[in-house]
Amino acid sequence: MNEHLTIYPIIVHLITAVLLLFFWKKPKIQRYISILGSTVGIVIAGMLFHRVWENGILSIQLGNWEAPFGISMVADTLAVTLIVLTNIVSFALSIYSTENMVSSRIKFGYYAIFHFLIMGLSGAFLTGDLFNLYVWFEVIIISSFVLLTIGGRKIQIEGAVKYFTLNMISSIIFLTGIAMVYGATGSLNMAELSRIIPEIENKGLMQTISLIFFIGFGVKSGVFPLYFWLPASYHTPPAAVSALFAGLLTKVGIYAMLRVFTLIFPLGETNQIILMIIAGLTMFFGGIGALVQKNILRVFSYLIICHIGFMVGGLSIFTQVAIVGAVMYMFHDIIVKATLYMMGGIMFRIFGNTKMEKMGGLMDNYPKLSFLFAIPLFALVGIPPLSGFWPKISLFSASYTANEIAMLVMFIFASLITLIIIAKVWNNVFSQNPESIETKSSFKYFKDFNFAEKAAYVVPVVLLVGVTLYYSFFAEHFQLIATRIGEELMNTEHYYNAVFNINEKTKL
Amino acid sequence: MTIFLFVILSSFLFALILFGLGQQKFQRMTWVASLLPISLFLYFSSFVSPIINGEVFTFFTKWVPSLGINLDFRLDNLAILFTLLITGVGSIVFLYTTQYLKGHPKILRFYTFLTIFMGAMIGLVTSNNIITLFIFWELTSISSFYLISFNNTQAESRKSAIIALSITGLGGLALLAFAVLAGQITGTLSISEMLQSSEVFENHEVSALLMVFIFLAAFTKSAQFPFHFWLPGAMKAPTPVSTYLHSATMVKAGIYLLLRFTPHFQNNSYFFTVLLIVGGITMLYAAFQTLFKTDLKGILAYSTIGALGIMVFLIGIGTTASITAAIVFIVVHALYKACLFLVTGTIDHQAGTRDITKLGGLRKVLLPLSIAGFIAAFSSGGFPPTIGFIGKDLIYEATLHGGMNPVFLTTIAVLTNILMVFAGLVVGVKPFTGKQPEELGRVKKPHFLLWLMPMLLATLSLLFGIFPGMIESLFTHNITPDLTGEESPHLAIWHGFNLIILLSSITIIAGLAVYFLWKPSYKKESSMIKFNAFSPKRLALVFANQFERISYFLTRFFQNGYLRRYVMIILVLLTLVFGIHIFINPRIFLSLKEIKALNWNEIVVLAMMLVSVLFTVFTKSRLSAIAGMGVLGYTMCFIFVFYGAPDLAMTQFSIDTLTVILFVLVLYRLPKYLKLSNRTNRIRDGIIATSFGTFLAFTIIEIMNENPVKATSEFYAEYAYKLAKGKNVVNVILVDFRGFDTMIEIVVLSIAAIGVFALLKLYLKKHEK
To answer: How far is Cα A167 from Cα B414, in angstroms, rounded to an integer?
Structure first.
């Protein structure tokens, strides 16, 4: 049955994770299994992407209970593209973790949880059922919580408690929203909901429920004023974990918004304005937060928030071009944010610190590494033609066409403040030579690494930088994908027909 | 013309090759880097005669067609002029630097960035797609960031680089906005195609927005008042960089942009008025500032800003004559300014200072250099027979015959030019004349490249002045947009006696007078400092500092580190959502009939609930609070029992029991009961909690009155046994209809188990952290 391919991305990581549990005390074998699992993951994601790209949206009814009675899994272009990117990041991090994670952490199930998390992400992207989405969120929260605390020190636990509490609250809010939707409509199937909800007369109620969802997803994606868990926790765990979080966790929130606010509750005027204001404030507060941080990882944390504003802003404008911009930004952001934290891990190994005042001189001492690091930093700023630049064309033009000049100004503000922040980071960490670098006795510095150890840190970064460069110079490919996603999201009948197996006469 | 694309991108490839060479190897063969600009110069020179004859060379290939972005390059008159300047001055600067930075440990980095910068400039002036123009525009900003902060160990350099990048970065984003908007309105991103729908630049309601963006872009890049202050700061760069950036390239990009889009805006009078005003202010302000500087590069910085002001001003006059004058002045300025910068560089290199009060009498040691300096100073002052004289002629010609108020325009042009005469003489003449001060010490003779390169530029200034015919055809043929249909003026040294000659003489004489009467000194420089409080730079820095302070305060205010604060914010938001819903849309469904339908055991349970809640909230003992919670949980179980869900009740019952036991166990580990919040806080929290609960309850009651589709629940009830072979519908839903959910929840539990295990057992050793 060819639609089974839809859930293979989930199955791969489930099997990998379970297999890893059997090699509990054997970190070396675990490292190989993880890399192997991620490789298979990429292959399968690629196959699924190819299938969807050629044949249109793919769906499967789990347990063979016809929709809407069972759980539907739906692979549309948005979902499969995110699955591909997720697997690329996961592959890079599988390699990166081999050195970044000490064996004792691996002996306590680091890799298994890692793959459970990837599974959770894949499930969240693929599910076509509202309650099932909640269940995937549970997987994501619990595994990220464990990853945050594994081998934890005081600071990690403190961050993790905030992380877990706030994310749990957000899940409960989400669950409340689901209960309300089910109470009002009697359905959990997203495709079916897209037909039922417009029929409901009590529009005010639907409006309120949609805002409940927004608050729930808002916490997860880190919008103002719900982002507090993010700067509190992202700088605490080992780099591999932060990189995974930075690349993918907030984006699940954005994904959920994109899905729910196009399919189930298409944004009305009021919600558009609310989202727009929130997006603007998110860019503002993320930007100014990053401006005043002293720790490079916290700078990155606040920049994550700042850039979430681009995606929420794109969604809020709610035209096809704007959605394309938001989706383009999301693709770029997944890769670049993961790269940033991986770089952060290397810098930590070089300086033994992530406080900017104790770093410096990277450009003089590691010119080639600096060159490598410059690419994601520039991409983040959106220096053309690197990846952060391309979404802005769509976002700028959409805000102009929709006559949302305030949004345009906020996009410019966020871009400019990112530029200034990265220039500051560059000056402090790369350009300025440090007065003295303290040496910790029981710390293994980057310069003491052997070739294989260095490679395990640097090769994954090179890999992701390669993806960024591909995005940058072959932006057409991504633009085409994003355009199709925009078309699929704004015209929900594609999704509906795929779930209910109605043949589309005109293929996309 | 694929080779054309290769030529434009060659700089980036070349930079990569240089980077690959490594400092060690490169240091022995720095001259290699100069090969690129020289060959590019020769390559572009070969296009001159066909282009003068009206040909236009283009290269086109698709890049991101779905956004309308193509690799679309176009070599026309304006482009060829700029490419020649970029590669020509580039060649000279590249060669000069081999000696200027000889043996510098970072010379490789210098050349790499300089090459990238040159490539970006070439791309900028040849792009016909406005988005690729923007791409190269940003590349110039970024590469100049590195060039300005080349002395990366100096805090001042780094700071100047950030200021320059912030200002030009703002302009860059404005340019992107301009590009996208213009593309939206005209439906094309090709600059030449936009011209066909130029009416949108005049009449369209958004032409105001377009102008705001293009002005922001051009004025920041070309250092117009009040954005000019990044330019003097950028003088922290090594002198060859200043030479290149400020004579022929970077700052001219803004001028280029304005010239390129002048045809589009040709019937938009606001466009020209703004340029006239901003250019006028800039040139006067900057020229005046040169009087108060003692650093040679400081003087050059302000005279550059002044010159840029003149160009904007000339474009603003908006006649064919004025635009020709602007273009000629670009060349004039590039030649003399590059020369003066190089002269300054050599002086600095040999004498170790750029302080004008300490310099003098250098003609004895640096004779060839002094000749170059003199010629450049004369060209800058508009003395015959240099090309500067012709340039000045054209300026007066333009001010006298254009605009609404020729007298006023001419007056400020003359004033500015008098001060420019002064500035040129101070830099090009003063260090060489008079007596050599004692404290200067022994000045060594420079390497021949260090005087030959400025000499080369000076010679060109002189040559083109005497034989303007050599370059005339570059300016007069089609380069000026056909604004008024009038002929563009003829370039010549001598037009006969007329008003213009008179004005030129007045300028020169007055300039000489200022030069001889006004001596730059520290005292004068510091006398200006008291006005600094109002200077745009100071205001911008104050703004930046205040902004950072406010940012810090706001960030700390929201991210104060307390979890309870974060939870409160989320709950307040939710309460607002529910509350607003209830108040906007009150649909309260409470009927007496339903209340009457309550039976006694339900009422008892409700009462128990209420009591246990109040008890939990108000008790002073942790243990009794937990007991209260337990009671509350059990009453919930009763509700489940009453409404026919015994299995749910059982589950809830066991969970509640377990929770209470766990809590009691934890209690022993906690410190004694403390009151951490004051009365106000507790009242506030109470209000939030009560309203949250109330509003949520009302909303849920409202939902109960909706009529959901029953298909799914009916399906479950009907087929649980028939198809799934299970008599308990809830069980069948859990393990079959929605069995996937359950499976994943089992995974969640496993993950939690692993996590708890690791939390309890794993302690990392110190070296593992």
So the answer is: 69
Average pLDDT, chain A: 91
- The answer to whether residues B212 and B296 belong to one domain is no
Closest Cα to residue B316, out of B278, B371, B284?
B278
3-class state of residue A53 by DSSP:
helix
Pairwise CA distance, residues B276 & A417, whole Å: 31
- Tens digits of per-residue pLDDT, A443-476? 888 888 899 999 999 999 999 999 999 999 999 9
Whole-number Å distance between alpha carbons of A172 and B27: 64
Structural domain tally of chain B?
2
Domain-located, residue B707:
no
Tell me whether residue B572 is in a domain.
no
Q: Evaluate whether B327 touches B81 at the Cβ level (below 8 Å).
A: yes
Is B485 a member of any domain?
yes
Query: For testing the chain B interface, which of A149, A293, A431 should be mutated: the one with the most B CBs within 10 Å?
Result: A431
Query: At CA B70, angle to CA B66 and CA B72, rounded to 5?
Result: 160
Closest CA to B119 of B197, B22, B7: B7
pLDDT of A330-354, one tens digit each? 999 999 999 999 999 999 999 888 8
- What are the DSSP calls for B336-364, one per residue? HHHHHHHHHHHHHHHHS--BGGG---GGG
Choose among A148, A150, A175: nearest CA to A161: A148
Question: Judged by CB atoms within 8 Å, which residues 601-620 of B form the interface with A?
Answer: none
Name the token pair of B469: 């015919």
Residue B80 belongs to domain spanning: 1-221
- Which of B481, B498, B527 is a domain's end point? B527
Say if the Cβ atoms of B559 and A427 lie within 8 Å: no
* Residue B176 shares a structural domain with residue B272: no
Which residue among B527, B552, B579 closes a domain?
A: B527
For residue A231, list chain B residues with Cβ-Cβ distance below 8 A.
559
Q: Which two tokens stand for residue A220?
A: 């997860």
> What radius of gyration do chain A's Cα atoms show?
22
Residues of B in contact with A394 (CB under 8 A): 67
Cβ neighbours of B586 in A, within 8 Å:
none
pLDDT in tens, A196-251: 999 888 888 899 999 999 999 999 999 988 998 898 888 888 999 999 999 999 89
Q: Which residues 712-751 of B have a C-beta within 8 angstroms of A?
A: 712-713, 715-716, 736-741, 744-745, 747-748, 751
Which residues in A lie closer than 8 A to residue B158 (C-beta atoms)? 427, 431-432
User: Measured between alpha carbons, how far is B519 from A396 in angstroms, rounded to an integer?
Assistant: 52
* Long-range CB pairs of A18-22, under 8 A, 24+ apart, other chains included: A18/A112, A20/A109, A20/A111, A20/A112, A20/A115, A21/A109, A21/A112
Query: What does the pLDDT look like over A368-425, one tens digit per residue?
Result: 899 999 999 999 999 988 999 999 999 999 999 998 889 999 999 999 999 999 999 9
Dist. CA A70–CA A187, nearest whole Å: 11
| Cβ contact B708–A285 (<8 Å) | no
CB atoms within 10 A of CB A452: 9
Spatial contact of B339 and B457, defined as CB atoms under 8 Å apart: yes
Strand partners, B57: B75
Which burial class, exposed, middle or buried, applies to A158 when counting CB atoms under 10 A from its CB (0-12, 13-18, 19+)? Answer: middle
B548 touches chain A (CB under 8 A): yes
Residue B318 and residue B434 in one domain: yes
Partners of A189 in the β-ladder: A129
| H or E stretch covering B261 | helix B252-261
Q: Are residues B310 and B197 part of one domain?
A: no
pTM (2 decimals)? Answer: 0.93
Long-range (24+ apart) CB contacts under 8 A made by B549-552 are B550/A288, B551/A288, B551/A289, B551/A291, B551/A292, B552/A292
